[in-house]
Amino acid sequence: MIQLRQLTKTYGEGPHRTTVLDHLDLTVDDREIAAVVGPSGAGKSTLAACVTLLEPPTSGSVVVGGRELSSLGERDLRDARRQIGTVFQSDGLLSRRTAAQNVELPLRYLGVTPADRRRRVAELLDRVGLSTRADHYPHQLSGGQRQRVGIARALALRPRVLLADEATSGLDPEATASVVRLLRDLRDDLGLSILFITHEMETVLDLADSAARLDHGRIVEQGRVVDLLRDPSSSLGRALLPRRAHAASAPGTTWSVSYAGADVPPDWLARVGTVLGVDLALLGASIGAVDGHTVGHATVAVPASTDPDALVRALAGLGLHARRTDAAHPPVRRVDAVLEPVA
Ligand SMILES: Nc1ncnc2c1ncn2[C@@H]1O[C@H](COP(=O)(O)OP(=O)(O)O)[C@@H](O)[C@H]1O
Ligand SMILES: [Mg+2]
Q1: CATH number of the 2-235 domain
Q2: Does any ligand 1 atom lie closer than 6 A to the CB of residue 44?
Q3: Which residues are close to ligand 2, an ion, with C-beta < 5 A?
């Protein structure tokens, strides 16, 4: 478990003083993947550096596995850091060492015997699905494979917590998917707490249990991913599952319908049409499952003669939230849902 309490980091003095993390509270439970998202410069990497105390926080506390890290002396801190495995955007592998030798490094530093090292490295490479690549050098591996070797190395000292800063950024979709699968397995099999820092919303949707949005060093919104997606007023929810422009314009009025409840029936469109005695046309939809819950939204066209209140009531009765979005009622502009790529 990771607990950050009122974590604050400032750089510089006097007039040059800038606050990069501003009284930030965040908890990542055991067996939880918590994503922190935010644009470039939001303070994400500073957050990662403060969790491992590579950067000492200016104030506030960092508790990992029940130990308050900022109170520890150098030696205890070194011990405590072993509970935290770290993975970064560039895999950080040594290019002149094989996959197995890279994974072995932390064990060597710790003075583990050669026989135990061999056993543990084989176990770790198997864990990340790279047993057959043990003797490959980094340049002989794909980006996704290199990142998985980096994860194997991060796991070498059996950490309780994994810290990933842009670990999938720059990977192609297939490689990203392989890292996402691996991290979810590690959460489930080892009960790890994973703090996953990224600017990629799509990966958050596939991976995380909870998400927090960091902006100018403050957490401006956070929650379980499924709750964010169901909340029509959540800008983080909208950013996680963006609305695409629908293909055709249709006669009548256009409505944006989102899954707000837990038990939306799969045939809701037909049911509402029957109740109101009209045909509803589906113009676009993005619907999927997150942790076994159906979430998403659809754009539907409704005949102009339909009573809008009756429509909203019929949809609400099925757990759906509706908002009119045609020219007469243009959607609210989403400024805050757009994230820039990292520099
Ligand atoms: N060592 C430092 N000294 C001064 N400012 C820094 C230092 N490290 C980071 N910053 C500033 O902190 C802000 C957040 O940076 P960073 O944590 O790297 O953001 P992100 O990872 O979200 O892109 C930036 O404005 C950056 O210039
Ligand atoms: Mg960064």
Answers
A1: 3.40.50.300
A2: yes
A3: 44-45
